[in-house]
Amino acid sequence: MKKISIISALVLSICTTAQTKMTSSAGIPLNGDKESMTLGDNGPVLLEDVHLIEKLQHFSRERIPERVMHPRGTGAQGYFITTKNISSLTKAKIFNQVNKKTPVLVRFSSVIHSKGSPETARDPRGFAVKFYTEEGNWDLVGNHIPTFFIRDAIKFPDFTHANKPSPVTDLQDENRIFDYFSQTPEALQTLTWLQSDNGTPKSFREMDGFGVNTFKFINDKGNISWVKFHFKSLQGIKNLTAEEVVQVQGKDFSHMTRDLYENIAAKNYPKWDLYIQVIDNKDIGKYNFNIFDDTKQWFDVEEIKVGTLVLDQIPPNFFQYTESAAYAPSRVVPGIGFSPDKMLQGRLFSYADAQMYRLGKNHQLLPANRPLVKVNNYHIDGAMNFEERTGDINYYPSTQSDVYTEFSPEDKRVLQGYLMRKEIQNPDNFSQAGILYRGYSPSEKNNLVKNWVSALSKVKDSKVKAKMVSYLYQADPDYGTRVGSGLGLQKNDYTK
Fold this sequence. Notes:
Layout: H1 6-15, E1 37-39, H2 50-60, E2 73-82, E3 101-110, E4 125-133, E5 136-143, H3 156-163, H4 174-181, H5 188-195, E6 209-210, E7 215-218, E8 224-233, H6 242-251, H7 255-265, E9 271-280, E10 303-313, H8 318-323, E11 336-338, H9 342-359, E12 419-421, H10 431-439, H11 442-456, H12 462-475, H13 477-486, H14 491-495
Antiparallel strand pairs: 1-12, 2-3, 2-10, 3-4, 4-5, 6-8, 7-8, 7-11, 8-9, 9-10
């Protein structure tokens, strides 16, 4: 037998230790991996959270060249008509004049499933809108479900890894999926949406779109309020049952794309009304949940119609206007800003970084991403920079340049707090899932229960099954009991 070297023995002893500290890629022990570092409870996420940055950077670079998230997409062009002047809330010029018409590029997509997947797959659908405004591009990037599975971006790579195919078999595996979700109770409301028939929309036209995250409105006085966005389909909402999914998938691999393009070609242009919900900054403490938690809906906040989205053009080239379309929630115009929503704060870095990695430094020069207004900055050179630049000045400030910046009030809040990694107060992981369940019709409940039983029956670990059912039971006893019964579980398996 060959002698084991001292180094090999040391490595072996480290690898066989019962528990090993999680570290950064440099081997440095981490002081937390479930919460981003914030300034106080509701302060912004800090750039000095180097672990968050490293984790998101590694995550965004895992695939070449397909998008890691939202890989299968369908694009359409059209316009947005403003129907209500809300300049008292925001100085964004897109909303300062009734009947103002703004060009848009919309990309619908899958979230988890790959570029070649069938459009019948159970999955949230991305609903991303690029507004080509007179002040530059505004990207509103959301889904067809109003909430998300996690409330902190530091969990996003793990959420995705669990739901993507196994690194061993390259197959999506319910054992991995629900092992993760059994330790992530905040996902329950979004899972209730996904396991219902809403998880398999009939068409892109017949589903809503949500901004999901909370954003900030700033008016010309510097006053702020908090806002959510909701596109309501004027075609109504129509979904497929699990049985209908099987029938459709056998006939058409791309039924949603085909439906959208055929209707646009027939001049049956799909439309959505855009509604906003607004909470004044002084009222953020009035609710029994954190309004910046993206796993929650604002049930008791009025929706106000502000415009209508119309899709009337099939893009002239799929690669240029759908594959090359780059969306990032960090792209906002004056009058729209960011909330301390931890998921949004991570997305501000991750989305733009992912597109820069995928398409290159100069991807905003591509036709789908180029703003209608003239771009003035000194982001020079790099691969595929086909902009013509002349002159000797590529820096600011300069006595030889007429480029300038102007200051306008953005936010009057005073922020203070201790650095922390901390779960939000009053997470309330289950009550809204119960509200959603009780709002379904009897047939919708039946389908939801059947879909849960089908998914969880593939899970081998009985403890994981019981844990998931215990979450359903805490949301609504009838909800949990019906799924538990379908799985053959005893009540004390999930209520103890």
